[in-house]
Amino acid sequence: MSDEHYLELCDNPVQFENASSVNNVFFDEANKQVFAVRSGGATGVVVKGPDDKNSVAFRMDDKGEVKCIKFSIGNKILAVQRTSKAVMFCQMNLQCVVLEVSCLCFVFRSLQTKNASVLGFCWTNWNEIVFITDQGIEFYQVFPDKRSVKLLKSQSINVNWYQYCPETAVILLSTTVQGNVLQPFAFRSGTMSKMSKFEIELPVVPKPAKLSLSERDIAMATIYGQLYVMYLKHHSRTANSPSAEVVLYHLPREGACKKSHVLKLNTTGKFALNIVDNLVVVHHQSSQTSLIFDIRLREPDCAVNTHQPVLPARSIHPYRIPLSDSSSWSVFQPDIIISASEGYLWYLQVKLPPTVNLLQDKGKLMDFLLRRRDCKMVILSVCSQILEGGEKGSLPVVATVFDKLNQVYKEYLEAEQTYTLAMESGPSRGSAAQKRPVRTQAVIDQSDMYTHVLSAFTERKGVSHKFIIAVLMEYIRSLNQFQITVQHYLYELVIKTLVQHNLFYMLHQFLQYHVLSDSKPLVRATPQPRLSTANDEIVEVLLSKQQVLGALRFIRSVGGHDNVSARKFLDAAQQTGDQMLFYTVFRFFQQRNQRLRGNPAFNPGEHCEEHVVHFKQLFGEQALMKPATV
Amino acid sequence: MLMISPRMATGMQEKQYTPSLLSFFIYNPSFGPREGEEEKKILFYHPCDVEKNEKIRNVGLCEAIVQFTRTFCPTKPAKSLHTQKNRQFFFEPEDNFWIVMVVRNPMIEKPNKDGKPPTIEYQEEEILDTVYGAVLRQCYSMYKLFNGTFGRAMEAGGVELLTQKLEKFFYRYLQTLHLQSCDLLDVFGGISFFPLDKMTYLKIQSFVNRVEESLSLVKYTAFLYNDQLIWSGLEQDDMRILYKYLTTSLFPRHSEPELAGRDSPLRPEVAGNLLHYGRFLTGPANLKDPEAKFRFPKIFVNKEDSYEELHLIVYKAMSAAACFMISASVELTREFCEQLDSLVGPQLTLLASDICEQFNINRRISGPDKEPQFKFIYFNHMNLAEKSTIHMRKTASVSLTSVHPDLMKILGDINCDFARVDEDEEIIVKAMTDYWVVGKKSDQRELYVILNQKNANLIEVNEEVKRLCATQFNNIFFLD
Q1: For domain B198-261+275-366, which architecture applies?
Q2: Interchain proximity A467–B213, CB inside 8 Å
Q3: pTM of this prediction?
Q4: Phi, psi of B235 (to 5 degrees)
Q5: Closest Cα of chain A to B78: distance in Å?
């Protein structure tokens, strides 16, 4: 209960001079830069980006109030809009920290339609810019050296407002009187392509028709690599919708836009949207809490593609500086929150550890965690936690969790294999399509499980060996189910646990069904060697773990103690430094010799001379077994 | 294909008698050491209608033989006594407690002409000590499984209780001994394992672990399919005898209702339970019955130096059977049985159909079952795994073999030879007609093959067996 805030603001916010009567603050979503323009630029413009490299300061002449100011990609060209009719371009030389930019400027007002007013502009490249006016969209190339611009393409259309998604370089225009017909355009190095338009279903159709879709209720973002238009559909008393919801429209590069997901907010009021780690975050203003939605998480009790919040609503983790009023925050896509009055820009982050206790259904929790970016340690800690509890009925949960982990693990292994095969068959054919698969944190392999979860679990006191074996077998079962080759150290864990509890018969049965024996290709010959080889392997494992008595007990239980090499066991016993152990093992083999050959001495072929010497040193000549006198 | 004995075929009037049980008794010499008290030594005697003095005489004779042979080897007194008409087997399972079984030798009755009484020819060399010695030991093991040791009964209620228990147990058990069909498999006392792919095996593991976790009363679980073992949580020796009980007594008794149609009156009441096919083979036949008793047979298993008494719950769904063993100190209630039924029933039903499906897939892959040119028995001393293509089916009454008894005898003889030495060896025997019998012993394993190849020579037979080993036994438990 100590900490349930699963959302937090980043530790290192971008700080800038807070907005005031003399200082105007602008934010550019494309470069994620904050512009603090003092007195129209005359006393300085300070640009702060996500890191220090993107921070610039310069001065420019005060030629009136700045309406919009943005750098092109890479800070090459600065565009400043002061009136609704004209935009000024300046080429920047970023060698100096403070610049006088006025001399390099030229003003561009040659717009297509004379009486159109500029709603805004977006840089799509270092020298390509799109102007959105109330009468259309114009795509230009800027040549600062020649102080000229070149029209690449334009399109006439009545525009109410627009949205820009810099990640995908898609501009969305609101058209028609009601504003609910949206026309997207995509930009890519000199080309502008019109995508298919679509209509947002309004909760109520106003009569007479008037602008009903506000730009505040629409946001664009990429979620799981796909572009979505998010529509914040407010509740309306007339329509049959008791609470607000977020409707997601999937906007593919090709093809028609489709309504794909509905996120149920179960409340009403003012909302704002962010996307963090592929989660849709919905901030609710009046309660000061936020909800998160994962569109990949299937809801069993909901209709297709209708989603409930993953977790109960919680506020964002309080920031270390007391903030006056978070309701004045501005929210930008995908994950930016700006307080202009305080002079901070934060990135919103998801904190995974608190989610573990908020989401009781472990299967769902795993589904959720596996899709998050920094999930590895949290997932491993969840695994340890469910094994620790040891409460009744936890095995099915353990099984579900293992299956989910191995599903992801298997997909990665397959992708890796396909890639390797493609590389081997020659990079010439369609190599562009082949990218090396990225190993995300969600890929939890056997060594992760072994190191962080299983080895500690099997060592823990007070856990019944039954449960330990059940868990290990469940993991091996899951790996097998996904046809993943089981690593030998997992078998070693099983063997060690079985031997520690003298469960040799269980061990035999596992060997018999080859559950434990695929780690090394064993000789397949008639009719017995498979088991013998596996036995040898077990002895090796036990000896290497200094379980000399366990190994002896095991080999005796399989009836192989007459044929094993005494030297191997004596070596291992001597290495432990435990004199009594050495004595016991030595005696064991002397008795064996007595039984087999009627003489306790070792044969020269057994190469145990040094052990005999060692034994004499420790316990004296008399301690040696004498041949029985007839 | 059941071979007809050549001897049966000839001489229509000749009558052949198979070995049969003459008497079976248990005594303890220390119970009546003084003269006149000899009767006290006898704890059990079959047949019971034998006259008292004869009982005392027979027991006394056995005692004397054992004592006498002790003088030659104090640690290993006589195990059997061969006579013309019968053979006696002695076994001392616990200190001073002796079990003796007297088997009449097989014999042939040849009618004589002229109305003379028929001549009886005893075939005293036809039966094997190893086979009947093993049968005798099995008798004791079975008693011990359900009653604990003799010593335990003595502690609990003295001679009186012990004789009661012996009477109650052996009266029924001896009727189920079919000495004529005992053979090499009784010597091995092995367990037939169900061949299964790793994945299905792991699923079964998972099932067992889950049941044991949610029904924490369950201490041990064993899992069988088609009367073959897949998993045992019991130790090997206990499982061996429990397996014997399940496959030769409990399962055959319950197979008839299953074979019967759904609506047959033989079929136990399963109405109202269409979700799964699970049912109890021990304990209540019908959970819905308000009169149902929740009593289960109790078994005794080894635990370090002592014994553990357990309830034996056998629960079956289709061909899959699960044995759950629960400490006898716990009283089992209707609620527990209902919980078990609702938890295990659906899962076991599903698992049974999974196994069946997987088994069929594997069988298809390994090719159609064509009648092989050979028959074999395989046994592994290490895990007690046995496999026989000679035995058709084990039932409560007889185990049907598909080869001539003479060949079975040869197998038994080879086995005796193997038992004498520790080394690996191979024995090839040319039997009558066209049969070759090959025995191979290697490490802990024994393999016996019967080949029927006309005009084959030793080299060819050897080659054939090599080929057979390579194809059949590289993966004896594993079909995929």
Answers
A1: 2-Layer Sandwich (3.30)
A2: yes
A3: 0.79
A4: -70, 160
A5: 24
